């Protein structure tokens, strides 16, 4: 490994305290850039121009590299040359004002209301497991919460009388989200009649428990939704986040304002929420093409 790259790797580990995976990505990007320079008999890595770096980035794009990969390479090079500049190894940073390519906004994968009904009807509500699983699925769709928020809920976070739940990443960041009557009904049944079937320790506060009486894990819930997806025979890739996406889009399609949806989702930036408007706009285009005589 080039001694400068080796020194940069030590800096990332000791000073920046980055994860091993992140450091490996940075170093791999730098090695690939070095190989590109050597294979094409170009300048040394410490003597490159901004134009040469742009040429390399175009080379990556011609190879079919994704926008995210190209952006990560820019971040790796920028971090490396900043380090070299601060160390006094180079006098000018060739990545100054180098812009990352704009990420293409991907339209979220969602379920139709009918597909939601099919999926949520899969758990067998004649069993305690089925009641628990249906409660979780109904809550994901009713509140649009993340799976991490779902499994972190405590019994005290649920207000069945007023119909809302409290989600919080920390004590200083609490979010109150309303839930509909169907979710309230199934949660009432689960909490009153079935949660005790899983409970092993009366001090356990988690709302959703596994067979060991412990808080359900993210992996455990992934297995649950995967099994019901297969059972529902819906020809789409369904993840816990699919229900969150569907929640947001269905609200917007039925007249909810963007700010309210942003607040319910817990997005700090409304631009994150705006991605869901792409789905509603695509739906409008479809309706127009089908209905307008000159479409």
TrEMBL record:
Every Core-binding (CB) domain range: 1-85
InterPro entries, per database record: CB, DNA_brk_join_enz, Integrase-like_cat_sf, Integrase_catalytic, Integrase_recombinase_N, Integrase_SAM-like_N, Recomb_XerD, Tyrosine_recombinase_XerC/XerD
Domain Tyr recombinase: 106-289
GO terms classed as biological process: cell division; chromosome segregation; DNA transposition
Keyword vocabulary terms for this entry: Cell cycle, Cell division, Chromosome partition, Cytoplasm, DNA integration, DNA recombination, DNA-binding
Active-site positions on this chain: 146, 241, 244, 267, 276
Subunit structure: Forms a cyclic heterotetrameric complex composed of two molecules of XerC and two molecules of XerD.
Family note: Belongs to the 'phage' integrase family. XerD subfamily.
Protein name: Tyrosine recombinase XerC
Organism: Gottschalkia purinilytica
Chain's gene name: xerD
């Amino acid at each position: 490994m080039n001694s400068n790259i080796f020194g940069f790797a030590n800096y990332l580990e000791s000073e920046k305290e980055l994860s091993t995976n992140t450091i490996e990505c940075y170093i791999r990007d730098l090695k690939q850039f070095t190989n590109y320079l050597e294979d094409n008999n170009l300048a040394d890595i410490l003597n490159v121009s901004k134009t040469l770096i742009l040429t390399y980035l175009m080379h990556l794009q011609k190879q079919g590299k994704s926008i995210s990969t190209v952006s990560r390479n820019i971040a790796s090079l920028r971090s490396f040359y900043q380090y070299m500049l601060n160390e006094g190894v180079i006098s000018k940073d060739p990545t100054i004002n180098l812009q990352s390519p704009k990420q293409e906004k991907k339209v979220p994968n969602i379920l139709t209301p009918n597909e939601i009904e099919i999926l949520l009807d899969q758990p067998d509500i004649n069993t305690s497991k089925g009641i628990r699983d249906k409660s979780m699925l109904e809550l994901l769709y009713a509140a649009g919460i993340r799976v991490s928020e779902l499994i972190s809920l405590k019994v005290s976070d649920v207000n069945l009388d007023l119909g809302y739940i409290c989600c919080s990443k920390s004590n200083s960041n609490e979010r109150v989200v309303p839930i509909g009557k169907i979710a309230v009904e199934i949660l009432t049944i689960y909490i009153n009649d079935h949660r005790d079937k899983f409970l092993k320790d009366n001090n356990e506060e988690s709302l959703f428990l596994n067979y060991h009486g412990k808080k359900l894990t993210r992996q455990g819930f992934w297995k649950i939704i995967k099994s019901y997806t297969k059972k529902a025979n819906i020809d789409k890739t369904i993840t816990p986040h699919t229900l969150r996406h569907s929640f947001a889009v269905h609200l917007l399609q039925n007249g909810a304002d963007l700010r309210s949806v942003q607040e319910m989702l817990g997005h700090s930036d409304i631009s994150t929420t705006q991605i869901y408007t792409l789905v509603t706009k695509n739906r409008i285009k479809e309706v127009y093409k089908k209905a307008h005589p000159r479409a």
